Sequence to fold (438 residues):
Amino acid sequence: MAPVVSGFSKLSKSDKIKWLVEHHFNNDQNAIDTLKTYWNSNNQLQQLHDEFTENTISNYYLPFSVAPNFLINGKRYTIPMAIEESSVVAAASKAAKFWQNRGGFKATVLSTTKVGQVHFMHTGNKKKLVRFFEAIKKPLIASTSDITKNMEKRGGGVIDIELRDKSLEIENYYQLHCTFGTADAMGANFINSCLEEFAKFLVEAASTYDDFSEEEKNIEVIMSILSNYVPDCLVTAEVSCPIKDLPNTTELSSVQYAKKFVRAVQIAQIEPYRAVTHNKGIMNGIDAVVLATGNDFRAIEAGAHAFAAKNGKYASLTQAKIEHDMFSFSIRLPLALGTVGGLTSLHPLVKLALQILEKPNAKQLMEITAVAGLAQNFAAINSLITTGIQQGHMKMHLMNILNQFQATKKEKERLIAYFKTNPVTHSEVVEQIKKLRG
Ligand code: MEV
Fold:
């Protein structure tokens, strides 16, 4: 077990590595070599990455891929995706290709409102608190004018502040429930700065409000923080086509395909065990775009799953239906994304990703990202109701197994050719490598 260390963050990078390797790797030079293999030879770029966060000792690579052929609202996109899971990009590309000949994806942003809250305790008369809030609401909003003036120029700012009474759930607990527009920024820093200012103003204004008793003057702010639950920052994306244009095979006619597809989505609407996996597949596509474009995938994940449970039971984020011989498939979810601020102008690959997308604004990025989620879900359900998921998965996983065995280029070529017509299983790959190596 490693000893307690203090002042670790103040050590130089090489001293941090020295400490780590001494206490976790018995001073094995290989560990140092592995960490250094991933350092960038461009010192300036390495320093930029080192300074993104604390205690950086190396870089953690993820594949940066692109999925071409996405037709969204009549415009063709190549979507950048940062993800390690082997079949995700291939699945997205396949779905994009399928739908580009059937009218493509239609996506629409329904709303862009973000939320933040000041959580506070107030002991005393509720009606007096309401009167106090009404009296201070205007100056309360104005108290952040230094922070909001630039955002207002870009079309954002504070939308409204409500006083919410939560005292039935927790005695004396209230909120300032604040709504914001953040234009093309994700806006986390903007929102949190405003909230902390609101909190300060609230406490000070209460302390001098004549109508309050001494107890009532003493508002205790518990915390001020944005919410990653953004049900009013919503986007929807849809594909549709005549049923006859759906896959049609000897096993499954296009009508049967459509019905089976709709049934699979229905199951994810009523069965949480399936819904979680169904939505996980959607997030495979969404997170990959969110990461590639320098957005906060944890925030997006938290908001999406909360939205999936908004009716009190966790359910599918997508819907599918058949109406008048037409099949349609859609997604609706909150995506608080930004294309300015944060990593967007700092991380060279993020900048490049946004260039690949032809510099979208935040609303366009919401649309593109929702489409990536829908495409991913289409590809997953398509496999699940036809061949099963493993055929495609294992094909993509073949390379990982070959790399585990340090297969040479020649060995890879031979085995990829072999597994074109034979089912991929881990043991069969091992068997074939052994055979090849005599
Ligand atoms: C795997 O990462 C995702 C899937 O399980 C999604 C799904 O089942 O819908 C294939």
Summary: Strands lie at 64-72, 75-82, 106-109, 114-121, 157-165, 173-181, 220-227, 234-242, 318-323, 326-334. The two ends are 44 Å apart (CA to CA). The pocket of (R)-mevalonate is lined by residues 85, 277-278, 280-281, 284, 380, 389 (CB under 6 Å). The CA atoms of residues 405 and 433 lie 8 Å apart.
